[in-house]
Amino acid sequence: MAMPEVSLRQLLEAGVHFGHHTRRWNPKMAPYIFGVRNQVHILDLQQTVPLMDRALRAVRDVVAAGGRVLFVGTKKSAAEYVADAATRCGQYYVNHRWLGGMLTNWKTITGSIKRLKQMDEQLGGNTQGLTKKEILMLTREREKLDRALGGIREMGGLPDIIFVIDVVKEKLAIEEANKLGIPVVAVLDSNADPSGIAYPIPGNDDAIRAINLYCDLMAGAVFDGISAELQASGVDLGASEELIEEEPVLETAQTSPGVGLDTETVETMVQANQDDGNQAGKV
User: Fold this and answer.
1) How far is 246 from 243, CA to CA, in rounded Å?
2) Which of 24, 45, 118, 163 is at 20 to 30 A from 31, Cα to Cα?
3) What pLDDT, in 10s, does the model give residues 1-24?
4) pLDDT given at position 235
C-alpha cells in the first residue's frame, strides 16, 4: 500500500483554504494566510501541501515502528469521521469529550476502562439478582463510559502521536500531549494557535468535506505504516493485504502537488469558490 498523496487542487475542491472571518483570527497564524476575500481569511495551500505530506509521513513512520495513533475530534462535524477513520485503520480515537487527565493521569483512565469492560461482561451475561432499576442504572453508566472511553479501551498505553482536528476545542488534549512529549499533528484554522504543534496543517477545520479528507489521508498513512511494519517483520504482504481493505477515498490528482497551479491560478480558483458551502458557520 502506497503513501497517500494530496494535491493543491484536491485541497481547493474540499474547501480547505477557507479560514474564519477576519475578526476571528489568531495573529500567530499570519505566516499561513494567503489573503482576504469577502472578509474571510484564505489559507495558503501552497504551504499546506508540503506540511500535510510531512505530517502524513510522521504518522506513517510512527505506525511502521509499531506505535499507536490517537485521533482526536470531539466537535459534532468531526466526531463521526474521526471514529470511522480510526476504526478502519485499527487505531484509537476520542470523539465525544476529552476528559481531564486522559493522558497525564493514565492510571486512573485505565481503571475506568477496566470498569467499562466489567460492565460489558456483566450486562452481556447473567443479570439475575439485579432489579430492573439496577440494570437501567448500570446500562446508563456503561453508555456514559463507552462514549468517553470506547475509542481507547483497547489502546493499552499512551499513544505515540496524536492527530487533532480543532486545536481550539482540543486545547486540553494538546497541553497534556505536550507535557508528556507526545508529538501532535493538527489542523490549524485561521483562529488557531500553532504553539505546541509539532506537525501543523493549515486548513479549514469546520467543513465536512475537508474533515473527511484529513481523516482519510491519515487513515491511508496508517495503512502504509502497517504495510511497512509487516514487510519489516517478513510477513507476506500478498496475504496480509487481503485483511486490509484498500481505501477508495484517497484519489490522487493527475498532476503532482502544486504543478501547473501558479499564484494566478490559485487566485482564480479561490475566487470561484467564494460562494462554496464550506463558508457556512465561519462568519
Assistant:
1) 10
2) 163
3) 678 888 899 999 999 999 999 998
4) 67
Instruction: Categorise residue 146: left if φ over 0, alpha if ψ from -120 to 50, beta otherwise.
Output: alpha
**C-alpha cell read off for 4:** 497517500
* DSSP-H helix ranges across the chain: 8-13, 45-64, 76-88, 106-124, 132-149, 171-180, 208-232, 237-240, 263-272
pLDDT tens sequence across 101-140: 999 999 999 999 999 998 888 887 777 778 889 889 999 9
Residues ≥6 apart with Cβ < 8 Å to 124: none
Handedness of CA 89, 232, 256, 17 (dihedral sign): positive
Residue with the three cell numbers 477515498: 249
Residue with cell 500535510: 52
Residue 251 has pLDDT above 60, yes or no: no
Tell me the three cell numbers of residue 21: 472571518
**Three cell numbers written together for 181:** 512529549
Q: Are 22 and 40 in contact (CB under 8 A)?
A: yes
Buried b (16+ CB within 10 A) or exposed e, 246-265: ebeebeebeeebeeebeeee
